[in-house]
């Protein structure tokens, strides 16, 4: 059923591993670029939401969720190695016996660190610019405590559901043929994850960087717990909840 797409992702997994192994700095820069793109979307989403938050939190939430979708559009159409998308891609490579789990882990680690560096650098520059400082600070003071007060299981489940949707949006980029079709579906799917409140570890890198600088720091223990369990959830969502059923269904149809 999905043989063509699975083969394409498996081939991409091989290319990603070869690049990470043979040209690690070049691969790392691709991950940094994806981190940049995530912050671009974060700033667009959060500043827009902050403008409307006091008078109309419902509109703020919808616009913020909708506009964050530009992140996946930039990565799919322009390029960049995003950790969460790699969870699906590398798993498909493993299921197709093109790479090993060890190969996948190397790509995941490189892209995770690269995404963090990109998100931290660009997020820090946004704060240094001083733009929208007041409204962003007020907005983060209102929303950040709620993002950090969750228990580990909730972080984990929200991470699973988030990356199921993110990887579904990436899969659409391969499955659908027209650019307009890809855009419409990707915007709808990413809006669904953001407006629902699911957790994306790389998006949180950008958000927590900007919020931390503006608010004078965040509680370290809670931030670390969030990253650990959201990251694990994102891996499960992309590599198992999405990738494995697609592979299973395709295997049965051969």
What topology does this entry show?
Layout: H1 3-22, H2 24-53, H3 57-68, H4 70-78, H5 83-95, H6 101-129, H7 133-148, H8 152-175, H9 179-196, H10 201-215, H11 220-252
What do you see in this structure?
This protein is mostly helical and 254 residues long. The protein has one domain (3-252): Glycerol uptake facilitator protein (Up-down Bundle), CATH 1.20.1080.10. 86% of the residues lie in helices and 0% in strands. It is built from eleven helices and no strands. Helix 1 packs across helix 6, helix 5 (83-95) crosses helix 8 (152-175) and helix 8 runs antiparallel to helix 9 (179-196). The longest helix is centred in the C-terminal third of the chain and has 33 residues, at 220-252. It is globular and about 50 Å long. The mean pLDDT is 95.
* First-residue to last-residue Cα separation: 8 Å
The topology string of helices and strands comes to HHHHHHHHHHH
Kindly report the CATH topology: Glycerol uptake facilitator protein
What is the helical fraction, as a range of percent?
A: over 70%
Percent in strands: under 5%
Classified in CATH, the superfamily is Glycerol uptake facilitator protein
Tell me the total number of β-strands: 0
The major beta sheet can be summarized as: none
Overall CATH architecture: Up-down Bundle
Q: Could you list the spans in which at least 5 consecutive residues all have pLDDT below 50?
A: none
Give the tally of structural domains: 1
Q: What does the radius of gyration come to?
A: 18 Å
Secondary-structure-based class equals: mainly alpha
Question: What is the CATH class name?
Answer: Mainly Alpha
Silhouette: globular
Quickly count the helices.
11
What do the pLDDT scores average to? 95
């Amino acid at each position: 059923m999905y043989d063509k797409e699975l083969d394409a992702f498996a081939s991409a997994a091989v290319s990603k591993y070869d690049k990470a192994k043979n040209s690690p700095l070049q691969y790392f820069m691709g991950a940094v670029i994806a981190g940049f793109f995530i912050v671009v979307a974060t700033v667009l989403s959060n500043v827009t939401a902050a403008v409307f938050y006091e008078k109309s939190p419902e509109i703020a939430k919808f616009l913020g969720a909708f506009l964050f979708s530009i992140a996946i559009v930039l990565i799919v159409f322009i390029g960049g190695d995003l950790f969460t998308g790699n969870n699906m891609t590398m798993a498909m490579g493993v299921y197709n016996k093109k790479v090993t789990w060890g190969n996948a882990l190397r790509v995941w680690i490189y892209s995770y660190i690269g995404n963090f560096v990109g998100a931290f650098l660009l997020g820090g520059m946004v704060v240094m610019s001083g733009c929208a400082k007041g409204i962003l600070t007020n907005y983060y003071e209102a929303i950040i405590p709620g993002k950090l007060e969750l228990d580990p299981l909730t972080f984990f489940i929200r991470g699973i559901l988030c990356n199921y949707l993110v990887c579904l949006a990436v899969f659409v980029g391969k499955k659908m043929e027209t650019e307009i079709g890809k855009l419409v579906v990707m915007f709808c799917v990413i809006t669904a994850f953001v407006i629902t409140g699911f957790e994306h570890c790389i998006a949180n890198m950008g958000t927590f960087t900007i919020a931390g600088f503006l608010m004078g720091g965040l509680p370290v223990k809670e931030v670390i717990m969030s990253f650990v369990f959201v990251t694990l959830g994102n891996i499960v969502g992309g590599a198992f909840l999405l990738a494995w059923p697609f592979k299973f269904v395709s295997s049965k149809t051969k």
